[in-house]
Model the fold of this input.
Amino acid sequence: MRIVCVFAHQDDEMRCLGTLQRFREAGHEISFVCVTQGDKGLAFDPSADRGLAASVRDAEMRSVAASFAADYRCLGREDGFLYDDAALRRDLIRTLREQRAELVFTHWTSDYNSDHVVTARAVIDAALFTSLSSFEPASPPLERVPRIFHVYPGDGYGFEATHFVQLTPAHVTVKAELIRRHRSQMDVMRRLRGRDYADEIADEDRRQGARLMVAHAEAFRACLAERRIPWPSDLPSAIPDQV
Ligand SMILES: [Zn+2]
Done:
């Protein structure tokens, strides 16, 4: 299966990095797409220009993608100022086709960051047209519309998880190491909250796992829009000796 992660920023994939490890172990192909350049990401350094921030985040994202032998592409939009428009829809239709997307992970449709919300909506809308050759006719259509899962956005956004993927301690360890490759963002989070994203996400995975009586899990919500609804078998199943 071809799995495509479409997120607004370089680090947003942290919500599904355990599940991606399980997909990779099972031989599935993974690719990453970031809609913005993350060019405001050196958030407390007024001397850092947008180009520098974008290049730092590009290098960090490429490091994570390399660990999955994954393609990475950036659609180049300005960080913090993403709006849904015709060009974005065209870009996403072409990109999902070029990546031969079968299963897509993206943001939830309500979130603390407007770039995330715009990305989620734009992905849902673009996916529908990937199989119709009248849209972007220069790019070959997909045989069928990719199915979509939304990642957990944090509490307070009306997200009720419908699917969970169990992680082993080894997945959790690798996940933390991958998250910390976004070193610039760990620095931002330490300044904002006194701890980094890897610690926060590990707590979250324990909380989700507790709901299933396992040590760690990631939570997802199936997209319910017609033709984008995932199959029950799309996510990795329980790990027998971890139940
Ligand atoms: Zn983000």
